[in-house]
Amino acid sequence: MKCPYCNYNESKVVDSRSTEENTSIRRRRECLKCGERFTTYERIEELPLMVIKKGGSQEFFDRNKLLTGILKACEKRPIPRKVLEDLVKDIERELRNRMETEVKSEEIGEMVMERLKNVDEVAYVRFASVYRQFKDINIFKQELEKLLES
């Protein structure tokens, strides 16, 4: 690791700690030439995950955008935010474990609905009504009947 003070290429690690989220390691280093200390962070390199929208356009996967959509469906429902954040983490983990760089937005929507059904049925129906763009009350009724059957 190059020293930011004297540009010497060798240093020793004096302390290592995980960050609060356990997503990276913070290392305190000391330059072997000038003795100055500096901090570096080691993170897992993630492949960018592209979401292919219904119209064919693409955008980067955004965990916050997904959480916001789920929060809207769960508005005024007695669901702890932590449960929804864990739901989003679970979906993101599953997508990244596939080791693919592209995913269709439809797949993400289905994953959300599958999990929301087990968390809160009202939130599930709300999310499904927006996601599946129910055109009339009969389609809405069919979805409710499927939910009651299972």
From TrEMBL:
Entries under InterPro entries matching the protein: ATP-cone_dom (IPR005144), NrdR-like_N (IPR055173), RNR_NrdR-like (IPR003796)
Protein name: Transcriptional repressor NrdR
Keywords tagged on the record: ATP-binding, DNA-binding, Metal-binding, Nucleotide-binding, Repressor, Transcription, Transcription regulation, Zinc, Zinc-finger
Gene from which the chain derives: nrdR
Classification via NCBIfam families: transcriptional regulator NrdR (TIGR00244)
Needed co-factor(s): Zn(2+)
Function statement: Negatively regulates transcription of bacterial ribonucleotide reductase nrd genes and operons by binding to NrdR-boxes.
Chain intervals annotated as zinc finger (unnamed): 3-34
Top-level taxon of origin: Bacteria
Protein family membership: Belongs to the NrdR family.
Biological process (GO), any one: negative regulation of DNA-templated transcription
All residue ranges annotated as the ATP-cone domain in the record: 49-139
One Pfam family hit: ATP-cone
Note on cofactor: Binds 1 zinc ion.
Keyword Transmembrane helix: no
One annotated GO molecular function: zinc ion binding
